[in-house]
Amino acid sequence: EITSANHHVSEMAQMGLRTLVFAKRMLTEGEFDDLNERMNAAKLFIKDREELLTHVFEDAERDLVILGASGVEDRLQDDAPETIQSLQKAGLKIWVLTGDKQETAISVCQQCEHFTIDMQMEFLVERDSDGCLSQLLSTLDRMNEEAPNLASSAAVQYSRTSTSERAAVNHVHSGLRQSSTRTTKKKFGLVVDGATLDVIFRTDQLKAKFLEACKQCTAVLCCRMAPLQKGKIVQMVKESQKPHPITLAIGDGANDVSMIQEAHVGIGIMGKEGRQAVHASDYAIARFCFLKRLLLVHGRLFYLRLALMVNYFFYKNVVFIGPLFMFVFFSGYSAQPLYAQAYLVLFNTVFTSLPVLIYGIFEQDLLPSTLMAEPALYRDISHNRLLSWSQFLTWFCCGVWHAVILFVGFLLFFAESDFDTDGKTEGLWSFGTLIYTSCIVLVNLKLGLATHFWNAFTHISIWGSILVYIAFILFYSAFMTTIITPTADLYWIAEHILSQPPIWFGLVLVIVTALLPDILIRVIRNALWPSNTLRKQVEEKVGPAQSFAPRRSVKSQAAESDERQSLIRQRTGVRIYGNPTQGREVHL
Questions:
Q1: Model's pTM, two decimal places?
Q2: Among 379, 388, 407, 250, which Cα is nearest to 322's?
Q3: Per-residue pLDDT tens for 399-430?
């Protein structure tokens, strides 16, 4: 019976069915009372509870009599293969953790294109430490000995109804051009079962070798796993290297709760297996295909907005506090303030708060349709690039530069200048008010330079914050200073300085001088080292980014055309008459 059941289970597993074996054991009343007492005692332990429960389960599940086996078709959800392919193109490493039989798991991975026909499959199925280490070492040797690059072959696609001859010829040319200059890395797929993972978890050496092998694999499958093992796998990956990778776990059943809670981001699918995974997750979705939009669109935009907001908060406070720090050296190291007390309170709460809030809500560097169609754009924000130390130091140095320009610029501007009709120079509060005014305008314009998606709310928040500040300072210096501060140091100061034409010239000059390096660096970087995101931004606005392609002479174009025709004729048997870029005639 065991042999027959095993044969049927293997056949059903190879067909991709989810198999289940039914068995029974008759317990006497004494055996049941003993097992029940041991199980209740094991549940009371805080330490080693899982291990004690495992021993009780092993004693209960012995001497079983097989009743039969079943195979149930577990169909993939719609767009599951496309979602996995898109996530792989985005640079995500995908591991499948399942409790299914090995044959069933492999069949499902092939259906969802997690495993492809061009992959070299490696299997880890050992039950002792020495054998497992030996198999890991041999697997690593095979991976290292394989030629890292393979010549890619060109494929010719010809359609008489859906595509024109010109499109077919251009496709041939692009394929041959890529095949002659680009190589394809050998792909490996790794399959490991739960029993082998138990052995790997015992020693750090096996863990290190296992992770080293997994890093060289395109796809990893862990089958016959217990729920607790799924959580251990996620924990092992989280602690594998520095910087530690960000992990995401997605599941739809109660057996996925451990890995969902262990991962940095847990996602539960609302399926027919209950709501345990959803209740334990950070986000809940109705279908697996929604994961693509959740990561490539919402995840990218959330990270983009959050990264700039964090850096911008540091930047604007450096610009705000920098002049106060430099003023200390000119005030005899006294406690003399440069700004009025009300200015200190309202800078972050009123005058610069709304623009960054609107940015965090509406900003998007690319349209959602573009991000969905081009998953590789997700790589531009991988490895925490926007919140790296280099980005932080760039914003910090920018803030220091702007603070220096504000303070030194107005210090030199006021050094030997007189703007009053009576020939007197401006005083301390005029100096501080002008620096504060320039700081408000500068930090809002800097955020405007970093904004890609402008809408009505963006314009209102940035220009409105500047206008609100001007209205406030005029009202405050005219009326509120006599009420709040009896000395009236700021009385009529705003109306006085803003009525002087040279002051307006100084404001414009200082702000332009501060922002000019930012603009020049951005223009040079975009012109010489355009990113994939920038190329797509240009395509969205003006069409295909032809301006990034270097111009070539007519002779070089003709020589490349002849070379393409020769490659097509030699490799594919396609003969082209006329200009190949126009695709006048194609013979197969």
A1: 0.74
A2: 407
A3: 999 999 999 998 888 776 555 555 555 677 78
